[in-house]
Every structure is written in structure tokens, then in C-alpha cells.
UniProtKB/TrEMBL annotation:
UniProt cross-references to InterPro entries, sorted A to Z: ENDOU, EndoU-like, EndoU_C
Gene field: endou2
Organism: Salmo trutta (Brown trout)
Segments of this protein annotated with the region Disordered: 40-62
Family the entry assigns: Belongs to the ENDOU family.
Short name of any one Pfam family annotated for the protein: XendoU
Designated name of the protein: Uridylate-specific endoribonuclease
Length: 356
């Protein structure tokens, strides 16, 4: 199961801060029409990162898979931030999703109606979310950033003073969370981050919010936060990034997302509505995401700490971590050696349920 965590750019006209007062989804989703190339999506997701290399010894992991020794230590840190994610929602209680059917293939040779026939889901993914969680500080700070971006790559980003203040407020909030405190302490011990909070905050701002130009763009048109947590579109046809469940839920609620069904292949476990990782297909803004992935129900601070850790700790961009019941490969691309790019976890397998 491929689980990607990224963000898409969203125009201000499609976002409202009044979302927390809306009722949960309860009606069938609208039908959209699209004809898109799956190969375009694959190509878009594989932008060439700057080359990074390392040489580390490897050992056998707890499930028999080869794992890099450094990943064993990182897994302990990920387990710690998972345990400290006090704002994580409980599946079936705080939220409910409806997997429905498996998404069909996206074929450029098929017309719009035939592509719609491959839709494996007639209803939204989310059937219920307890939106009281959105009133918590970290969720409020996160949601305030979702309307700060233009979705199309190639369109220059302009950061207003108000948006910059929201970025700083979000980082201040993250630094107060138990998850980021754990991540910061570990990064300091590894001499990968400064010990002082002001200096660490500057490092985080550079990694996540400093703008950079994607290939073919003449001016800065993207940022790590935008791509990893909000999402982007390319050419009006392809969705890149967009791996955050909060953004997915809010956009689906507004009628901008058409969930097409779950994704699974022979080498990945079957999806489970009571697990926190899901691979899926959906359309957004007339574009298609043939295969995306998300953590479901986790807090913004968990994902922010997780990806910051993996980005700074792993020079070869891919790490394997074991936490809770999940065995996951996490990939962070390094743009210009200093900006985080596409970030996604690939679910390798579920381990045995842990018993208290």
C-alpha cells in the first residue's frame, strides 16, 4: 500500500475558516469527469531530487526485512512521538471512513464516461469526523495555512505579511507539542539541529516554508509545506502531493474531492478502515491522483515531527521505520539540499496487534 503525505496548493476562494462549524458529510459525492494520464502522475511524482548518498550497515529488522541500523534508532523515536500524539483520533469513534471498492485503472485511451465507470466508490471516503478536534490549537494553526497557496505549479507564490505571521504561529504551536520536543531533542543529540528554539525555528522555516522554483518555473512557485501538506496541480490535469487527511476531509466536505476507491497491489496488505494508513485514488480540481497515500486521524504535530525527523536524519532519502503495528518505508526528497519535497510512507505490512 502506497501512503503518501504531501500537500496541495489551494486558492483562497476554495477555503473557509468556518469549516469547523459545518456538519459531517452525509450525502453522496458529486460526479466529476476526467480523462488523465496515469503516466503523467508517475512522472510528476518522480521529480529529480538533488543526489544524496550514504553508506550504512544493515541488519535484520523485527519482521525479517533488511533495515539500516540507523533506522532502528529512528524507529524508537517514531514510536515515542506516536505514543505522545495525544491529539490522534480513534478510528470508528472520532472518525469513520468508508473504503467501498477498489479504484480502477486510469487510462488515457478511455473516454470520460468509461473512466467514471471505473470509480470504485459511490460515496465520500469520510462518513463522520468529530470536528471538535479542529478547535484544538495545533489543528486551528494547521487549517489556517491551507488557503495560503495557489494550486498550479508554475504560478509564482506571493507570501503576504498575514500569511507569514500564520506560518510563524504554526511553528510556535508545533514547538510546544510533545512530539516536536522529542524530535528536537533527538536532532540536537545528533548535531543535526541547533539547540536554541529560535535557531531551530529558523531551520524549520527554511525547510518547510521557504519558497523554491520547481523545474520549468521562472519564479519560486512551491514550498515544502505546500507540497507535503496542502497539495499541488500540474497542467490542470495532474494532482501531485496532497497526502494530508485533514485537507482531504475538508476538501471532500466542500465537494471538491471525488474519492474513487482504495488502492492495493499484490505486495501490500489489504486496507482496513480501523487502521491509520490508507492508499487511495481521488480527483481534485479536474485533476486525478491515480494513487495517493495518507495517514488518517493523526495530528498535524505527529506528521510534522515525523517528516522533519526523516528529512534531517536520512541522507539517502528512504528509511524504514517500525512503530505501533506498522512497518513503513518513508521517503523524503531533498530539493536543493535544504528543502523538503515529496514525502510519503509506503506501508510494507501490519505487525501483530500490540496488547496492553
Amino acid at each position: 500500500m502506497l501512503v503518501k503525505i504531501c500537500a496541495f496548493k489551494q486558492a483562497s476562494s476554495t477555503h473557509t475558516n468556518s469549516t469547523t462549524g459545518l456538519n459531517p458529510l452525509s450525502c453522496p459525492k458529486p460526479t466529476d469527469h476526467f480523462s488523465l494520464y496515469a503516466s503523467e502522475q508517475a512522472k510528476a511524482e518522480q521529480e529529480e531530487p538533488d543526489p544524496v548518498s550514504c553508506s550504512l550497515q544493515s541488519t535484520e529488522g523485527p519482521t525479517g526485512h533488511i533495515m539500516i541500523e540507523a533506522d532502528r534508532e529512528l524507529s524508537a523515536m517514531v514510536q515515542d512521538i506516536w505514543d505522545k500524539d495525544v491529539n490522534r483520533l480513534k478510528p470508528g469513534t472520532d472518525y469513520r471512513i468508508s473504503l467501498q471498492g477498489k479504484a480502477g485503472p486510469v487510462n488515457a485511451d478511455m473516454n470520460d464516461d468509461m473512466n467514471d465507470d471505473n470509480d470504485g466508490a459511490g460515496y465520500p471516503l469520510f462518513s463522520f469526523v468529530d470536528e471538535r478536534i479542529f478547535k484544538k490549537e495545533s489543528f486551528l494553526a494547521f487549517i489556517s495555512l491551507l488557503d495560503n497557496y495557489e494550486s498550479d505549479t508554475g504560478e509564482p507564490e506571493i507570501v503576504t505579511p498575514e500569511e507569514e505571521a500564520e506560518n510563524h504561529k504554526f511553528l510556535d504551536c508545533m514547538l510546544r507539542t510533545p512530539t516536536m520536543k522529542i524530535a528536537h531533542k533527538y536532532l540536537v543529540e545528533k548535531q543535526l539541529s541547533p539547540e536554541g528554539l529560535p535557531e531551530f525555528k529558523k531551520q524549520l522555516y527554511r525547510i518547510w516554508f521557504e519558497l523554491y522554483a520547481r523545474r520549468g518555473a521562472s519564479k519560486p512557485d512551491s514550498s515544502g509545506f505546500e507540497h507535503v501538506f496542502v497539495g499541488e496541480t500540474r497542467g490542470g490535469r495532474t494532482v501531485i502531493g496532497f497526502h494530508n487527511w485533514i485537507q482531504l476531509y475538508l476538501q471532500e466536505k466542500l465537494g471538491h474531492i471525488d474519492y474513487k476507491g482504495y488502492s492495493v497491489n499484490a505486495n501490500s496488505p489489504q486496507p482496513d478502515e480501523n487502521k491509520h494508513i490508507l492508499a487511495l485514488q481521488f480527483s481534485w480540481k479536474n485533476g486525478i491522483k491515480p494513487k495517493g497515500s495518507i495517514f488518517v486521524g493523526v495530528s498535524p504535530e505527529f506528521e510534522f515531527a515525523l517528516y522533519t525527523l526523516c528529512f534531517l536524519v536520512s541522507p539517502n532519502e528512504r528509511v524504514k521505520v517500525f512503530f505501533s503495528i506498522y512497518e513503513v518505508d518513508i521517503v523524503c526528497h531533498h530539493y536543493n539540499q535544504k528543502h523538503i519535497g515529496t514525502t510519503y510512507p509506503v506501508l510494507v505490512k501490519y505487525q501483530k496487534e500490540q496488547k496492553n
